[in-house]
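User: Quick sanity check before I run a bigger batch. Here is a single chain. Can you write out its predicted 3D structure?
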Amino acid sequence: MKRLLQHLRTKEWLAQGLFLVVLFFLYSFDKHSPHIEMHKFFFFLHYMSMAFFIGYVLLPLFFYTKKYLRFFSALLLVFAYAYVTEELVLERIFFEDKRAKYISNVFYTLLEIVPLIMTMVSFKFAWDISKKQNEVEQLKIAMQESELRFLKSQINPHFLFNNLNNLYSYAMENSPKTPSIILELSSVLRYMLYDCKEDYVSLIKEVEHLKHFTGLNELQIENRGAASFKAKNVSDTFVIAPLILIVFVENAFKHSSASQTKGIVIDVAIDVSADGKLNFMCSNSFLTDSNTQSLSQGIGLENVKKRLEILYPNKYELSIDASINMYNVALTLQLQERK
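Assistant: Done. Predicted structure follows.
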């Protein structure tokens, strides 16, 4: 952090130095006198010291802390000091004519020096605004990353809570499917714990994980129905945010198995176009007269909507609708290429 601040301060001084050099040549330019007159250099140096005092002392001390009355009062004092110093010191050093003997009109003198000083101050003010804007952008990025980590961390316990309850039931019944369920569960958890630490993962790994997850839940519905999982044109060329799609599949199994004792139908389909557009569809049957409203909606759906909005702004379309006894989710997502 200290090195970064030093780097930014160095960039500021270099940019400000270049700006002042250009401004000095504009100030000292005279088509009737091609050489730079010595007095203009010292007058410019005087104005520059006033500008530095305003920019590096008065702005942070009063203006940025919203003490506007103190700031403008101090600004008037600075201009008064600049006027007095120019009239009583600088002009008497560099001029021997009447310009040194007579005090100029305050209005005309300030009209000459104030715009130049404020032009110098404006560079510092604009730089500070730019730096503050950059800090705001960095803060927004940090907040988004923090929110994403929080949302992702919610998924693992959410998934684990649901499936450990089911696994406990099978174990209590001494079901022969218990070892298969444990094996599928371990594959899913291995992916969650070790492969999804990055912001984006290989599309192949994510789809493979989703396949294991579907198989795990299909074991649990036993003879009450069937689940299908189809994936086409999935390649290692693209990456996807992990655990985006699993929420829809989890909800499909949860609501179908809760409302139906038989005839469960769950279809999951994934297709990826050549330009990286992922088309995901998940449909599940349910009975409207069953007490599905009492099911806890949980954090899953809201979670995934927030993640989509943060990770894929203006790059996704999500459609969720319920027809007669069927619940349909369609997600179109523009994937990123693997770097």
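The chain has a mean pLDDT of 79.

User: Great, the batch can go ahead then.
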